[in-house]
Amino acid sequence: MKLLTEEIKAKLPKLYAQDGKGGKAIVHAKFFMPTGSWSWYVLEGDIIKNDDGSEDALFFGLVDGFEKELGYFNLKELEAVKGPLGLPIERDLHWQPKALEEIMPELFKD
After folding, report:
1. pTM tops 0.90
2. CA gap 69, 27 in Å, rounded
3. How far is residue 68 CA from its own chain's centroid?
4. What is the 3-state secondary structure (H, E, C) of the chain?
5. Rounded distance, CA 26 to CA 41, Å?
6. pLDDT digits (tens, 9 = 90+) for 38-85
7. Dihedral, 89, 48, 30, 44 alpha carbons, nearest 10
8. Cα–Cα distance, 63 to 68 (Å, whole number)
9. Which of 39, 45, 49, 84 is 20 to 30 A (C-alpha) from 59?
């Protein structure tokens, strides 16, 4: 499965484009480990063209693993991961963009 589609690339804000929006920042894609509890929620990213013509991307978003934290993650690294049963990370095909505060409300409580 292709994690980064042309449709996602077209809508994905560049890195730092949503800086300062807090919980109102929009999550544009979700990747997940089908045999585990890890998920990666993409807020923004930059597409990188390699010398060999291949593409990579650096994303910023929410990583929900051992704990929830905001940070950077790389497309090529996600594509290289295989879970306990040898299954790769997948893209949530039914994902609809939503505000970060809907995914991580505990961070944005008054």
Report:
1. yes
2. 14
3. 13
4. CCCCCHHHHHHCCCCCCCCCCHHHCEECEEEECCCCCCEEEEEEEEEEECCCCCEEEEEEEEEECCCEEEEEEEHHHHHHCECCCCCECEECCCCCCEEHHHHCHHHCCC
5. 10
6. 999 999 999 999 899 989 999 999 999 999 999 999 999 999 999 889
7. 160
8. 6
9. 84
CB neighbourhood size of 93 (10 A): 7
- How far apart are the C-alpha atoms of 75 and 32, rounded to whole Å? 13
- Contact assessment for residue 39 and residue 33, using Cβ atoms and an 8 Å cutoff: yes
CA distance 27 to 104: 11
Q: Which residue has 């963009």 as its token pair?
A: 97
Q: Which residue has the tokens 């290289």?
A: 80
Residue 106 pLDDT more than 90?
A: no
